[in-house]
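Recap for those who missed Tuesday's class. We walked through two folding examples back to back. For each one, the amino acid string is listed first and its predicted structure tokens come directly after. Nothing is annotated here on purpose, so try labeling regions yourself before you check the end of the notes.
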Amino acid sequence: MQIPQLIQQGRPFVSLEFFPPKKQEDWPRFIEVAKELQQLRPLFASVTYGAGGSTQSNTLEICEQLIDACGFEIMPHLTGVTADPDKINGFLDAIRAMGVDNVLALRGDRPVGYPGTDAELFAAFPYASDLVRYIRSRHAELAIGVAGFPEAHAEAPSIAADLEVMEQKVANGADFAITQLYFDNRVYFDYVERLRARGVTMPIIPGVLPIRSLASLRFTLQLCNAKVPGLMVHRLMKAHEEGGASAVYRIGVDYAREQIRELLAKGAPGVHLYTLNKADMCLEIMDGLLEP
């Protein structure tokens, strides 16, 4: 079923994001983690694609395994970076053959070590909106999700320009958005308000990344431009000094729980949880936050 139709059912929800393990020997454990998370009754699960489609085949196989083993409504990611229409067509045909009704259309980031120019890298699909338009022209039956950036994309010249990019995605056929991670709910609600003022009415699902450790936080911040509130940094550093890694983990759980509780209380349709392919923290965070 299309994700916008599922959202229209009206109950607050959690959705999950997974990334395909690169080594196939790690797949059985990954599927066990996914099975553990079935108890959250996720509205859908998304599966990342990899820079330049580097894990495209893994994405398709993992999607199929998640459907078979867990019965999840699946949304694979699809990036336009280094892609051509034939490659995109093959991927879309493959997911439709699986019965998948949703796809997340992304421009994608420059692969590490790529020697070519941006013109070569994004030749066929310079922007995510171009990929959205292409998917819509080929598969009208698919629901298309896109990325939203409450603190603006790192390459956007201004917040206003970033909002215009989202308007173009909608004009080209986007049906809903999932935000990049952030740590201050005010930026999410402000982002939604600004989009609504521009006539963007589609669902905007907030993305939440639990902080598992200081190392994982540093790694994540290298990949995006999310801002960490100073008070939160202070709490994490103090927790690490006084209690080590376990204290940081506890702060991460408590902070994510409060973030999600506030989002749902103030009208967010649900939350998209970046799982990092771990079940324990996700289960602790969501315990009791949704109706049984």
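Example two. Treat it independently of the first, because the proteins are unrelated.
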Amino acid sequence: MLSYLSAWVVFRSGFDFGAMQDAPFYHEHLDPQGAFPAWNVLSYAITTVAVIMGLILLDFWPITTIVSKKPAFGTQPYFGLISTVIVLSVAGVVWETGVNLSGMDTVDYLVRIPVSFVFGTFILLTLFQTAPFQKLAQPAKGCALIFGSALLALLTYELYRFASINAFAHIQAGPPAYDLDLWIATAMLSITFPLIVAYAEGFAFWPLKNDDRH
């Protein structure tokens, strides 16, 4: 319930779809007219997801180091507050670097950086089960996994881009529709990832891995 309430508050107060008012789907009475352009808020929000995935790869290092020295910080709400501050701060630096300092288009940044990175982490965590880095200690293990996820992000983005352009020759990247960008993001996270989870968790990698000894 709290998650839904938080999402509602962020949507109502943060999202402004005014830049899309010429699009056929735009309806003024549905626009919350929040404080920030919708693409900016969405790309930052997905960046926080990428940072959280990075912390998972690091087994929440360096937060665990802080907790080991100050055990009280390992209890709630302190652990949650520390994690939130770190996630929001790192995501802010990454977003600022990618969008404002590097001058990337916001939607291009969204798909190339956080969306592709999250997809890369899913591949390493779900399909590869963190191989071949399982035996490394943190933070070396997490850093290796983050580097691997970033590399997979680059490779899979180009793979999906190649597939979409060859399957739909007319598809175009960039504004105003961002057809290619949204196709890649949707194919990665809305289609391929659920199939990966279904295969890895639902079918336990069958028939590649068969634990039936009878």
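Answers for example two:
Residues 127 and 196 are 7 Å apart (CA to CA).
Strands lie at 15-16, 36-37.
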